[in-house]
Amino acid sequence: MCRLAAYLGPAQTLESLLVDPPHGLYRQSYAPEQQVSGTVNADGFGVGWYDRVLRPEPAVHKSARSIWADRSFLSFAGLVNAPAMLAVVRGATAPAPVEDSGAQPFASGPWLFAHNGAVTGFRTGVASSLRRLLSAERESQILSASDSEVLFALVLDRLDAGADAADAVGEVVSLVDRQEGGRTNLVLTDGERIVATRSGDSLSVHTQDGAVHLASEPFDDDPGWQAVPDRRLIDATTAGLSTHPLS
Does the pLDDT at position 95 exceed 60? Predict the structure, then answer.
């Protein structure tokens, strides 16, 4: 399993978003409180962030090390200001290997993507079924052995075909449901919008003063945090947030 955090709003340092909060992603990597499966997330870490004034594509830093062992990240986190970011601490689902290619978030063009959960039966046939639904282009770009990157490729195929981001993410959750199901908390962002699903694991959201925080677990005791009900899709920008049932 994993823990994740996403942000849109006034520029903040990665350190202030991920390391400094009392129950931020840094702490959730070794002491999660709401995680459905697993007790530690030490099988990799990644963060992607945006400066859309310079370019639409995000910068991404990923490692197979835990966040607390990633000295490179800790050295620059206090210097990087970002108005949008997505970060993940990974607890690999066995028998997936622990390697850089499996660390999230995944990136393609302007998109960042993360998956917290597991596709049921992925190692016993569902992976082949899902891969057969991919375009040759998107399947050829998959580098890791994880179910998460296959889900991202399925989302990208739908975006390539002109689907709205919320429709693309919702359709992929429904596709997994029609297979053997699983836990599919998905997050997709282009640095201006966050689309996310809660399906099988915890997810909370906090909005205030033009800022949106989305996280597997609240990172502090601010009463503004709201738990997202299960089987919901979140569509958020700095101008507002909407919630819809997953079909």
Answer: no
126 flagged as catalytic = no
Burial zone of 214 (CB within 10 Å; 0-12 exposed, 13-18 middle, 19+ buried): buried
User: Could you read off the pLDDT of 176-234 as tens digits, one per residue?
Assistant: 999 999 999 999 999 999 999 999 999 999 999 999 999 999 999 999 999 999 999 99
In this structure, of 58-67, 70-79, 93-102, 160-169, the range with the lowest mean pLDDT score is: 93-102
Residue spans of the domains in the chain: they are 2-245
What is 2-245's CATH number, 3.40.50.12280, 3.40.50.720, 3.90.1200.10, 3.60.20.10? 3.60.20.10
Catalytic residue, candidates 2, 82, 155, 233:
2
CA-to-CA separations, 141 to 149, 168, 192, in angstroms, rounded = 9, 18, 25
